[in-house]
Structures are given as C-alpha cells and as structure tokens.
Amino acid sequence: MPPALEVAVHGTIIATVGTIVIALYNGTLFAWHPILMSLGFLGIMSEGVLTALKFRRLEGPPRAAAIQRHFWIQLLAVTAVAGGFWAIYQNKVIHGKAHFKTTHGKFGLATVVLSAVAPLGGVLSFRKFGLLTLLPEILHAPTKWAHRKVGMVAWLLAVVTIQLGITHPSVARGILTRAWQAAVVMLAVLLLAIAYTEPSERLPQRQGAEVQMRALGDEHLSKTL
C-alpha cells in the first residue's frame, strides 16, 4: 500500500470528523445523530475498511491478528452508528415526526441495515469463532467474499447518505459544508484507490473449484488404496 495514500486517509478522517464534532455539538439530542454517524462511518469504519485492505497481503498468525483487529474496530463503528440511529429516532419521537420519509432517511435505513448485516457475515467467516466450520468447505470462500462485498456496499452507501444529510438546514454550516462534502468524496476515492492497488483475494468460484478438485482427488486416492 502506498504510504502517501494511507497518510491521506488518516488525515482526511481526522480533519473531517474532528470539524464535524466541533461544529455540530450543541448539547441537543439531535446533534448526536450527525456526530455519531460521522464518527462511526467516516471515522471508525473507514479505519476498519483500511485494516481489511491491508491484511490482504498477510498470511498465517499476522493475518489472523489483523482480522481480529478489524473485527473490534468494526464492532466499535457499529456501536457508534447504533447510537446515532437511536438519537435521530428518539428525537423524531419526541417531536412527533414521521420516520424514514425523506430521501436521506430512506438511504439511512438501508445503510444501517447493511451495517448490521455485514458484521454478522464477519463473525460467520472468521475461523477463530468456529462458525465457519459448520458450513460445507465449498461455501467458505463465497461466505467470506459476500461479507467483504456487503461491508463495502454498506460503507459506500453511507457515503451517499452522509452527502444527503450534511446539507440539511440543521447541519449545514455554509462553506464548511462544502468542505465536508469534498472531504467525504476524497475519502471514498482514496479508499477505492487503495482497494485497486492492493492485491485482490481469489474469487470464490476459483477457490470453490479448488476445493472440489481436492475433494475429487481425495476420493480417487481413497479408491486406489
């Protein structure tokens, strides 16, 4: 991974999330919604995505340690997102407003649902938890592949949802809002660039075929013995 790209990601995260927290915190319940969502998605989850991209190169114990670190980072991110979701839901209840009626609200609901589903796939696919062994071996690679894809889609959907939300009158801060919008786009571009430069993991179809070939080979060997 090019060091410059990694430094750029960290710098963009700190600058964006830091200014959002400083600019929007006013002690109200509503303020916790954009603060926790930006912290969860743009801050913590972005670091989790970066961690996942970095361990593509690793094997053995270092890879297992990196995967475990990715798990805890994403768990913290989902906790922040859950707090942000609760804040806006409760705020609407207090003020008697309908839920999920705006474009931002509908995108936000889809984002939160996917953000809850993705970690479940991670728990299932992480061998240390022992759940993956309950599945046939031919499904191991597709399960991991699906987890990665759902996680990335959830994060990219969060980028769109945040873009829709930071222009809301209760959140907008003039020229600072435009800077946030540009920074969110920059963060997405940087992570996609890193994903492109990092070596891709094997496709599940190829891995599944290899499992089948090994199984056929073992069966043939057992018949000849």
Give a short overview.
The chain contains seven helices and no strands.
Structure keywords:
7 helices, disordered C terminus, 225 residues
Question: Into which percent range does the helicity of residues fall?
Answer: over 70%
Compute the CA-based radius of gyration: 20 Å
Q: Looking at the chains present, what oligomeric state does this protein adopt?
A: single chain
| Element-by-element helix/strand order | HHHHHHH
SS element count, helices: 7
Q: What is the approximate shape? A: globular
Low-confidence stretches: 202-225
Say how many strands there are: 0
Average residue-wise pLDDT: 88
- Our estimate of the beta-strand percent is under 5%
Question: Termini separation (Å)?
Answer: 48 Å
The major beta sheet can be summarized as:
none
Structural class: mainly alpha
